[in-house]
Structures
1.
Amino acid sequence: MHDHDSCIRAALSHAESHCAREGVQLTPVRRRVLEILLEEHRALGAYEILDRLRDEGLGGQPPVVYRALDFLIRAGLVHRIETLNAFAACAHAGEGHVPVFLICRQCRHVIETPAPAGGQLERAAEGAGFAIETTVREAEGLCADCRTAA
Amino acid sequence: MHDHDSCIRAALSHAESHCAREGVQLTPVRRRVLEILLEEHRALGAYEILDRLRDEGLGGQPPVVYRALDFLIRAGLVHRIETLNAFAACAHAGEGHVPVFLICRQCRHVIETPAPAGGQLERAAEGAGFAIETTVREAEGLCADCRTAA
DNA sequence: GGTGTTCTGTTATAATATAACTCATCCAGG
DNA sequence: CCTGGATGAGTTATATTATAACAGAACACC
Ligand SMILES: [Zn+2]
Ligand SMILES: [Zn+2]
Ligand SMILES: [Zn+2]
Ligand SMILES: [Zn+2]
């Protein structure tokens, strides 16, 4: 099993030092959005996050949460999952990785696996003279638990 | 340069024989959606396609175009580009490939490159005991033309 | 001619995302 | 001090993307 409390603390402290180093602000809204994603430990839609914020009296309109997510994504602390139109806290913040996501269509869990750069996308881009800026690598299927359950 | 007329004809004839083989119908709406995507030779949003259909008196409501797109995607004739929430005719229909997309953020062109199976996604999945059903591989950046222009 | 199947038409609405403007705060330069 | 720029939050309204739900046409099979 996984020590979720210490995993959250580590991620938050990484976020703090990252923001301090970059000279940007981890404001209460931004910090709370990151905490929510870390606590849930799964991908949440922007409006799910917004509902949580609203319950806590912290910014009741969509732009608030979308701006916070933009910030966290630019900082590399959160990833957007294109396949789900959802967002998840990075599970390997600060490790210099390309994110690869495995999304279970049954239990909806998202596994972020660390991967080195230099896969098919990079090779394809090189062949075409294309300069990559960001990449999306996502797979949908059945996770190990759901496979054994079935 | 690229002989677009013959490329469209080839793709349509592949679509016809594929549907005949599978015993499914390439109806007028479905065929026209595929033609539009082939003619444009780029990624179109569902509502852009819908506007074109409407002009031709062929199905004026969103469900019509979304249903046609579902069909064409299931048939492997069209791909959904997750990064753009858009759709593009497959440039390698019938060649048994995993789609890899290079999306230029400047000219919005989408390059579909053929790629073999067995990249990072598959390796990551194997390590996690995850059974892949579909994959998304997309990169955003600058295409060769836009790089030389800049 | 009934009966199941497939496809389309239509209305309404859900879910996701952004534009545009306002206001508060902080802080460096004068 | 006080002021002008920068940053971030609040708010209203709206744009964009996608689906639910149900009705009717067309056809195929028995
Ligand atoms: Zn990550
Ligand atoms: Zn699962
Ligand atoms: Zn393809
Ligand atoms: Zn370009």
2.
Amino acid sequence: MFSKACEYGIRAVIYIWSQSKKGNKLGVKDICKEIDAPEYFTAKILQSLARQNIVSSTKGPNGGFYIDIAQENLRLMDLVRAIDGDKLFTGCGLGLKQCSASNPCPIHHEYKAIREGLAELLKTKTLRELADEVLSGKASLHSIVS
Amino acid sequence: MFSKACEYGIRAVIYIWSQSKKGNKLGVKDICKEIDAPEYFTAKILQSLARQNIVSSTKGPNGGFYIDIAQENLRLMDLVRAIDGDKLFTGCGLGLKQCSASNPCPIHHEYKAIREGLAELLKTKTLRELADEVLSGKASLHSIVS
DNA sequence: AAAATAAAATACTATTTTATCTTTTATTAG
DNA sequence: CTAATAAAAGATAAAATAGTATTTTATTTT
């Protein structure tokens, strides 16, 4: 469904958010250790998100990634769009170039419902909510390490 | 969502079905012309589906692909599984190796609902239904050519 | 039997995605 | 001002997906 880049990006941003709340900045290494993601690849994703002003960063000692309070209501949708674009929310399920209610593919209506359900989910969830779930221990960003 | 191979495969099988009903066998060239898909690539997909006994084929003059009546109740789900496997129906939305109700990622429950909705759609739709929609003109397998 | 046809199999190419490594630039602590 | 630190940028590599071309095999028509 989501690309690997998007999966890592979401996990990273949720973690950054949960720590920014405490005023901490995080290095890529720390982030990747926590969310179990490849370091250099995740760095690229975060750099792209920084250019898009979704996360902030500072270089040098004590530098790292953080998220501005102003982004408190950032929706999961905004993040997915920033990384994967919106092909997931626009394209035809069977790949037709033109597919609409007036010239539908055989699963147009049903697929549209699924896709809209997904969009609704992503629009509803804010990064704040997601980070809170992790902070409260209700949800996790990595597999159990035993 | 689906891979290109899967998109072409679904369109091809629906078209083959709609013609098999009339007793016609179809060559790859004809199929690809109708569904606007790359010829050699689609051929490979169909050959794989033939090995999996989802479509049938005969070589030589008047040969081609067709679908056995016994496959009348073939579900879209079976086709998607045969081409893309079931990663779409099993994996975690955020890519966690282990993600379950007891150790959930932050979108586990909501994502599960979306995924199950999709699975339900694919299990409900039979190839017969989809082909009928195309035959009756209610749905289309290619963009409008004006 | 020979020629024609069409799928099957194999090999090859291109593009995109994922991942890693190296160099550069900015910032801060000493 | 110099070291050290950490992100930014760029270059490269590996893997997966998408797409094309060629050869082989089976079947049918003449």
